[in-house]
Amino acid sequence: MESVILEVIFNNKAEKVKLTYSEQPASVSVVFADGAKFTSTGTDIFSSFLSLRERLPGYIFQCKGAKINVHPSRMSSQMGCGLIAYELSLGFPAKKSDLVNIFTPDVVKSEVTTKEQRDFFKNWMQSLSA
User: Fold this and answer.
1) Alpha-carbon distance 11 to 99, whole Å?
2) How far apart are the C-alpha atoms of 86 and 68, rounded to whole Å?
3) Which bin fits 103, alpha (ψ -120 to 50), beta or left (φ > 0)?
4) CB 3.0–4.6 Å: which of 19, 33, 40, 88 could bond 52 by disulfide?
């Protein structure tokens, strides 16, 4: 198991949380300052993180994996267990330099639902064939 300290924003208040993740079985857990703990599982770390975010509406995780334009490819999901994803731009193919760790800290100004994130990925795929 690996862990990182991340900032989470809820009701305009920032809080440091401990996020722990595992590849086998794929799971992500978050522990808040008050001791509350939530764990979600999935087919890989990215899908586990999406599931965790779905369980915590209103919480804005300040990391790459919570951005609308970050999503793993099938290959990066399989090879990196969903820990590595692409930071995508509409109309542009993903490059090796676009690979990011989903738990790398980043500024996320507003909540992005997992549906919005999946929809962006679909739109990105379509933008490549336009």
Assistant:
1) 31
2) 11
3) alpha
4) 40
For the segment 7-47, what is each residue's pLDDT rounded down to a tens digit? Answer: 999 999 999 999 999 998 999 999 999 999 999 999 999 99
How many domains would you assign to the chain? 1
95, two tokens: 């490059």
Task: Kindly state the greatest CA–CA separation across the chain.
Answer: 49
How far apart, in Å, are the Cα atoms of 123 and each of 1, 38, 115? 34, 31, 12
Peptide bond into 57 cis (omega under 30): no
pTM over 0.90? The answer is yes
Burial (0-12, 13-18, 19+ Cβ within 10 Å), 73: middle
Q: Are 103 and 3 in contact (CB under 8 A)?
A: no
Please give the structure tokens belonging to residue 2: 């690996």
